[in-house]
TrEMBL record:
Lineage: Bacteria, Bacillati, Actinomycetota, Actinomycetes, Micrococcales
Cleaved signal peptide residues: 1-25
Places the protein is found: Cell envelope
Domain called Periplasmic binding protein: residue spans: 44-332
Source organism of the structure: Cellulomonas oligotrophica
Superkingdom, natural source: Bacteria
Keywords from the UniProt entry: Signal, Sugar transport, Transport
SUPFAM superfamilies: Periplasmic binding protein-like I
Alphabetical list of InterPro entries matching this protein: Bact_Solute-Bind_Prot2 (IPR050555), Peripla_BP_I (IPR028082), SBP_2_dom (IPR025997)
PROSITE patterns: PROKAR_LIPOPROTEIN
Molecular function GO labels: carbohydrate binding
Main location: other
Official protein name in the record: Putative multiple sugar transport system substrate-binding protein
């Protein structure tokens, strides 16, 4: 995996992604690349999974911009959630002899042949937010602290129910329960789904054990709750089935753990169509989320979705670009996590960024003031 790059080296250019004090930490603005610019003829293949999610469009654009500032030309490809299309796109990048490849996989287990070919061609591969599994030919992984995402979602669910305050401290007026909740997980071909799930379940487990929270459907395993490709329609269909099978007797559902804003919107549509809400103030169950998509932030402003998790993908793109620069300049980026991400063959060196919970009162400070979204984008329900 530790290939030695034989490309021309820009004089004095070195990337060091600074070591954090502990695994999973983000050391703010300390990590940085060199002040020199990489050779303008260098080309980087950027393989994104889909345009159906606002998040991936933003990531693709951010990567192109960050790579451009470092003097790289980016070949950005979207695969429309089609694994075979993504494999063909990466094959073409290797054939074109790009200088590096950054890939956010549709199916993290499907790229073995492509990674082997990249290794043979001396092309470094950086996994972008989604780990590539079952391979010894992956160089580096840039992502967020995905376990922390699950913890944040679970704490947001508890806060929405009044069991803890927004800081996660148990409240004096907490309801005694039992409170019915249902659980959703992401796509099982995305390694992140397991980290989100584990972080959430570990946080909620004490409330299940003491009977405060009850999963009325009994579906408490990730395989039972997963939504393929993180599909909004798939989430709505599963929520429809849960309501028909387990809540037709008039039982109330208090909250739904959702790992992603698109899934959240599908869940919310199902709940509203079943006559709940339409807002939290009207009795709509608490629904969590992730990615701060404009459509879901709008729902938060309307009092519909309770929370989301903000992962500043501009910073993710920045550090991915710096890792590319490091490899092209004959160096290796330095991880801040060397233990968490075992891909089935090896533990992949990773650089993890922090995440932030966003509630209604945080939208201005975290999303608007930072420039991540504009109010116009939120009002339109799209950052496109």
């Amino acid at each position: 995996m530790r290939r030695r790059i034989t490309m021309a080296v820009a004089t004095g250019a070195v990337l060091v992604l600074g070591l954090a004090a502990c695994s999973g930490g983000d050391d703010g603005d300390a990590p940085g690349g060199s002040e020199t610019t990489a050779a303008p003829t260098a080309t980087v293949g950027v393989a994104m999974p889909t345009k159906t999610s606002e998040r991936w469009i933003r990531d693709g654009d951010a990567l192109v911009a960050e790579l451009g500032e470092l003097g790289f030309e980016a070949d950005l490809q979207f695969a429309d959630d089609d694994v075979e299309v993504q494999l063909e796109q990466i094959d073409a990048m290797i054939e074109a002899e790009v200088d590096a490849i950054v890939v956010a996989a549709i199916d993290g287990t499907s790229l073995g042949e492509q990674l082997e070919a990249a290794e043979a061609a001396g092309i470094p591969v950086i996994a972008y937010d989604r780990l590539l599994r079952d391979t010894g030919d992956l160089d580096f992984y840039v992502t967020f602290d995905n376990y922390a995402v699950g913890v944040a979602q679970a704490k947001a669910l508890l806060a929405g129910l009044g069991l803890v305050d927004w800081a996660g401290v148990p409240t004096d007026t907490a309801p005694t329960g039992p409170l019915n909740v249902e659980l959703f997980a992401g796509s099982l071909d995305d390694n992140n789904a397991y980290f989100f799930w584990q972080g959430a379940i570990d946080t909620l487990e004490p409330y299940f054990e003491d009977g405060t929270l009850v999963v009325k459907s009994g579906q408490t395993e990730i395989e039972q709750t997963a939504i393929l490709r993180w599909s909004e329609d798939g989430a709505k269909a599963r929520m429809d089935e849960l309501l028909a099978s387990h809540y037709a007797d008039g039982s109330e559902i208090a909250a739904v753990l959702s790992p992603y804003d698109g899934i959240s919107r599908g869940i919310i549509t199902s709940l509203q169509e079943a006559g709940m809400g339409p807002t939290l103030a009207d009795g709509l169950p608490v629904v969590t989320g992730q990615d701060a998509e404009a459509a879901s932030v709008l729902l938060m402003q309307e009092g519909v979705q309770s929370s989301t998790v903000f992962k500043d993908t501009r910073r993710l793109a920045h550090f991915a670009a710096l890792a590319v620069e490091s490899y092209v300049n004959g160096e290796e980026p330095e991880p801040n996590d060397t233990t968490s991400y075992d891909n089935g063959v090896e533990v992949v060196p990773a650089y993890l960024l922090d995440v932030e919970s966003v509630y209604l009162e945080d939208i201005t400070t975290q999303l608007l003031d930072s420039g991540y979204l504009t109010q116009e984008q939120i009002d339109a329900g799209s950052a496109g």
